[in-house]
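Schema walkthrough. Field components (list of strings):
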Amino acid sequence: MELLSGGEMIARALEDEGVEYIFGYPGGAVLHIYDALFKDCKIPHILVRHEQAATHAADGYARATGKPGVVLVTSGPGATNAITGIATAYMDSIPMVVLAGQVQSHLIGEDAFQETDMIGISRPIVKHSFMVKRTEDLPIMIKKAFRIASSGRPGPVVIDIPKDLTRPDAKYEYHYPETVKMRSYAPAQRGHTGQIKKATKLLLAAKRPIIYAGGGVLLGDASEQLTQLARELNYPVTKTLMGLGAYPGTDRQCLGMLGMHGFYEANMAMHNSDCILAVGARFDDRVTNTVGKFCPGAKVIHIDIDPASISKIVMADIPIVGPVQSVLTEMLAQIASLREKDSSLPDKPALEHWWQQIEEWRAAHGLFTGRRYGESDMIMPQQVIQSLYRATKGDAYITSDVGQHQMFAAQYYPFDKPRRWINSGGLGTMGFGLPAAMGVKLAFPDMDVACVTGEGSIQMNIQELSTCTQYDSAIKIINLRNNNLGMVTQWQDMQYEGRYAMSTYEDSLPDFVKLVEAYGHVGIQVTNLADLDGAMDEAFAMKDKLVFLDVIIDPTEHVYPMHIAPNGAMKDMWLSKNERT
Amino acid sequence: MRRIISMLMENEPGALSRVIGLFSQRGYNIETLNVAPTDDPTLSRLTLTTVGSDLRIEQLTKQLNKLVDVVKLADLTEGAHIERDMMLIKVRASGAARHEIKRTTDIFRGQIVDVGPNIYTIQIIGTSEKLDAFVAAMSDVDILEVVRSGVAGISRGEKVLSL
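Field assembly_structure (string):
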């Protein structure tokens, strides 16, 4: 058996695990590891400009590919800088393995230079964490970390590695295990057949059914099964912010996103349904509005790999714990056998009536009518997203930051394929979009990758423009620039009588075109609607350039629909500044 | 309702902090906590008591089960069980009170485990309720110190919490 140092073991184990990229930043505690990577490791390392960006880039890579993202940071500030990105991945259940350096074992607890209790700090935002005590344990711990991160309900795993355990002169036998068993970790492999039968019966008996699909459908690679089931039954489908792409967004049966800024027809259909099939969704407060008023007439079937997600917020009438793909496959078989016995299932007249109602809602207040675009001459943010959709033929990977632009992108870019929409849904992390786009572009270099952002969010990780220069990351940045923190001012308009408390920047914004040019990229500013499509096409025509499209938009536009809170139900929405349900 | 939740967890550094952290993170209360190694050196047994609605307790046990360090978990209050809390209580014992304290201790089937010219240290074992009752019975006595182990529990009959 081969003898390797701790640093070499890490390099080799990551290779043996099939890791494609390491996103990281060197520092004192990880120098042995970096030297091992430098000397003998085939995995390219992406040097970011801030550790937060390393985690977001790894996260973007993971969301687009389904494979765990890998991060390597040093101790102390390297580790703490990674925290926001780890929390982002945790909230959205993204597989990630974070290798964090630690001070030498004998210094731990002595407030040594760049020492921080990474295991302690990261505890509430990781799926699990390991503190390495012996060099010999590194391979098995790395294997366990990858297994835990990528199975069951995925999530980030931290490995804390004291520097002395990676020193080059202490060599141990290296063996990377094929598989690993953990007595206390066994995610469900399949759903309970009896429960699936019960659920199928209920589903087929529904008169006003709706399928509510969440991020779990994407994480569990079950879009195909979900689509098949919905089409088989001709049931409407609504998706959460995290579930966009789980069912083709341009399909007639798709009611679009639901929730706080969900489509009118989606929220109305949810509220009035008699049976909700929730798949890999978690009844987040951004979906339910007031829980006590949530969908009063609906029976709930809830499929999730995580038992703790079921009946956490809304009681499930039929809970099914299991991987969504296998459960839906079994459900499809059940549907076929039930329909063989009774071909009148599901209730077609009721369904026809239900669709009629939904189409009425859609016609009355659906998006894509242009009616909510303002009267001013300025470009409306929705038009920018529609221009982006047109230029990319709806087939790009879109990352976003957090705020109004995120909601406009979610509403006006219907995703037909899974894993194309990359955004921080749970934690709502501004600064996510640019580094995430870098990670996606590395995974799919031949695809169009665009980051939809705003001048607030982009400045939270704008230093990554330099990383993009170093690795020729030809992403497109679409900056919806309204010169204020849009979602904040929207709330201030609605709830604080338009007092813009610290949500504007005076005249302190940089000239973004000059700024990106300074990094070696291309910047284009657009102020007239007439120039928008041309500029968008120009940007995407530059295949090997990062192009920053600085689009000056109407600063007064709000995102609608918007749930009326507090005490509102799913059906209670603002439809514009002065119209409500 | 009061629940006694008992679990086997990996005897690993950080395991306890994950359990405790979960409680503060998700806003649950711990009333008592008891943790010690078992006959299997790789496993610790942790028992805690908490109060909450059925729904909340269900969510809590699911969250605990999700922790990779938690190997197995049981809500002992779901079935017949035995619970024991141990208390050491140091009281001022002089003059006429000395005799009365001894008698009360006997009634509670406690033991005086340390004696000084003016103090008794009494050991009482039983349910939390019994221990509370003893403290109440000492209301006229000058209590100097109270130490309790927290509840440890085990199911009655054949039912076991083991791997």
